[in-house]
């Protein structure tokens, strides 16, 4: 990888689900080393589809996906790089498939060649960082939505990724956990794409907001003008001055 290569680069990518209309249309996108990008767009815009295309969970019908400066031509290429980019699925149930929390978190490190002892140590440490100490032996599918969301986040952090793709990470989180996630993201300081409708979260964790329109990524000037923090009632939520 050249120092100036983006971590993620999409060039002219298009995609349609079988029998469906085109969801992504000639989309160009790049995530560079210092980028922290918020992605805000209405439901059905293709945000989740975009993250899945980036990691090769879906295959573009045309265009190119490049990760760390390398063109991704097939599953083999993605397998090598997928663990370097942590994807938090929109639905935590898609991320968690082991009986207990510790097994779910240790799964990634074990799969990337760590010994059982190393993987368990990393997992315990990660759970601690995320405020989940004591959750090790809990049954994953019995956790609350917010707890599952944080365990899903732990499975990603345990892989020590170089970038993050987070698909609506704050859904179901209480105030305290929400703040903990903001602090964790600040501490990790990784390049990221965060899909969220929570503007207070995005203004704390990202530097730039993009949106999607007609299957492409565009800069939302309107949003940029209206996201600013100051000391009146509307706080960091986007709003208009009239
Ligand atoms: N597995 C699927 N099969 C068929 N259509 C899908 C599938 N997943 C999503 N879609 C459709 O693709 C479009 C984009 O979906 P999605 O990427 O989930 O949007 P967003 O994350 O922005 O809400 C929607 O119209 C949705 O109904
Ligand atoms: Mg989505």
Beta-strand segment tally: 10
Q: Give the helix/strand class.
A: alpha/beta
Instruction: Give the % helix.
Output: 25-40%
The CATH topology assignment of the domain at 1-84 and 194-228 is Rossmann fold
CATH superfamily of the domain at 1-84 and 194-228, called what?
A: P-loop containing nucleotide triphosphate hydrolases
CATH class of the domain at 1-84 and 194-228: Alpha Beta
Radius of gyration: 18 Å
Low-confidence stretches: none
Beta fraction: 15-25%
Bound molecules: adenosine-5'-diphosphate, magnesium ion
Order of helices and strands: EEEHEEHEHHHEHEHEEH
* Total DSSP helices: 8
- Architecture of the domain at 1-84 and 194-228, according to CATH? 3-Layer(aba) Sandwich
Shape: globular
User: What is the strand arrangement across the widest sheet?
Assistant: 6-7-8-3-9-10
Description:
33% of the residues lie in helices and 22% in strands. With 242 residues, the protein is an alpha/beta fold. The protein has a domain at 1-84 and 194-228: P-loop containing nucleotide triphosphate hydrolases (Rossmann fold, 3-Layer(aba) Sandwich), CATH 3.40.50.300. A 6-stranded mixed sheet has the order 6-7-8-3-9-10, with helices on both faces. Strands 2-1-4-5 form a 4-stranded antiparallel sheet, covered by helices on one side. A hairpin with a 2-residue loop joins strand 9 (208-213) and strand 10. The longest helix has 14 residues, at 116-129. The protein is globular, with a radius of gyration of 18 Å. The relative contact order is 0.17. Magnesium ion (MG) binds at residues 47-48, 90, 167.
């Amino acid at each position: 990888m050249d120092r100036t290569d983006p971590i993620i680069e999409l060039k002219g990518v298009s995609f349609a689900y079988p029998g469906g209309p085109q969801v992504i249309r000639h989309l160009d996108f790049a995530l560079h080393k210092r980028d922290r990008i918020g992605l805000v767009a209405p439901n059905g815009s293709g945000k989740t589809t975009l993250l899945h295309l980036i990691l090769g969970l879906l295959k573009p019908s045309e265009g190119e996906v490049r990760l760390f400066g390398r063109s991704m031509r097939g599953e083999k290429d993605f397998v090598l790089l997928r663990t370097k980019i942590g994807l938090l699925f929109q639905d935590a149930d898609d991320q968690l498939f082991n009986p207990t929390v510790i097994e779910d978190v240790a799964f990634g490190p074990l799969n990337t060649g760590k010994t059982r002892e190393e993987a368990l140590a990393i997992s315990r440490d990660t759970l601690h960082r995320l405020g989940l100490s004591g959750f090790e032996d809990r049954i994953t599918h019995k956790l609350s939505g917010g707890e599952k969301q944080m365990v899903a986040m732990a499975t990603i952090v345990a892989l020590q990724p170089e970038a993050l793709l987070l698909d609506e990470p704050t859904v179901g989180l209480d105030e305290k956990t929400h703040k903990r996630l903001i602090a964790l993201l600040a501490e990790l300081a990784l390049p990221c794409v965060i899909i969220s409708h929570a503007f207070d979260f995005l203004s704390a964790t990202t530097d730039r907001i993009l949106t999607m329109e007609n299957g492409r990524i565009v800069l939302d000037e309107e949003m940029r003008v209206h996201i600013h923090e100051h000391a009146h009632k509307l706080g960091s939520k986007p709003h208009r001055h009239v």
